Amino acid sequence: MAEVAATLVQQLSSLEFDDKVSIYSLMLSRNSQLMASFQVQDTDSAYGDEVSAYSTSLTSSVLSYQFENGRRYHAFRNGIYLFPNDEVEADRLDLMHEMTLVIMNRKLFIAPLGDSPQRVLDLGTGTGIWAMDFGDLFPSSEVIGVDLSPIQPSLVPPNVKFLVDDIEEPWLYNAPFDFVHGRSLACSIKDYKKVIRQSYELSSRTLTRKETAQQNLSRNVAPGGWVEFQDWDMQLYSEDGTTSQTSLENYCDVVFSAFARAGYSTSPGPQLERWLREAGFEDVHAQRYKVPLGVWPKNKYFKTIGSWNLLQAETGFEAAAMAILSRNGGWPKGDILDLVDETRIDARSSSIHPFFYL
Ligand SMILES: C[S@@+](CC[C@H](N)C(=O)[O-])C[C@H]1O[C@@H](n2cnc3c(N)ncnc32)[C@H](O)[C@@H]1O
């Protein structure tokens, strides 16, 4: 193992900087697999190999988290993602996962995958909760979750692995995927179209959700693969004008325009269908879900979703605003917290009736 690792390090050091970044995850992956085979000999646990998944792949550069304004941020490719990666944020992402399951009638995906999808890639996997649920649902699949932050648990289903990598860099996977999944990447990545193009190269059908789009790609690669993107329209909507001139409206204007100025894709949802077609996909289908914020809806389904959304927003307003406004807008922390507090009050109010679309 030491010999192979040394060869990899040697290969790495002979590369130019850009190449170093992109082969990084490959090296981590190989190391993890090597470590896995050692650990399997040592333990009866079905989780033995996954326990090691990060033990060799985490280097100090990946773990040297940045601390700022009371929050923790990713280290690998420092500064490119502006939400925190601490426990508070991990809890929020798991709340969002539950909310999305409610929205989707407890489906993890809507692509017609059949009974035995094999290779699956989850882009920007976050806490890895979707990847782990998927791995549990299809024990014969091999699921890879990739993220800038190694914040996923170490005890995971034996068919799930996590890699630290930048999905906006060229992908180096050497085999196509049966399913590529990306969820809630709004305000996370800059070149969403490029990520879709890379998915195109690695699969043979696509389905996204709002936008949800599906398509049969008869040319290229093995038939039967699918792609599903689940992402946000961050435009603030209200059917009765109650969001007008609120702190919530002000927050959305200030924060999302700051993300847009910094070059992030802030509202990918409504554009996914077009981006998929532009990437070369055909027969694209899209689906849109209404997502209220708050407990105000009378309908039970929407009230449940609105309640989950309010719960995640309790910490989400700060998570989204802190780095973008302080780093890019020069806002003092106190002013950001004031903006967040006022916005939270509006979100809790039953007389303000906001919603977004997924
Ligand atoms: C809002 S979270 C969504 C997490 C997960 N997809 C989910 O739905 O629970 C966005 C995630 O994308 C990751 N991310 C952002 N930019 C990335 C990049 N360039 N490469 C890999 N991951 C990235 C972040 O670290 C974060 O975990």
TrEMBL record:
GO terms for molecular function: methyltransferase activity. Transmembrane segments: none annotated. InterPro entries: SAM-dependent_MTases_sf. Pfam families: Methyltransf_23 (PF13489). This is Methyltransferase domain-containing protein.
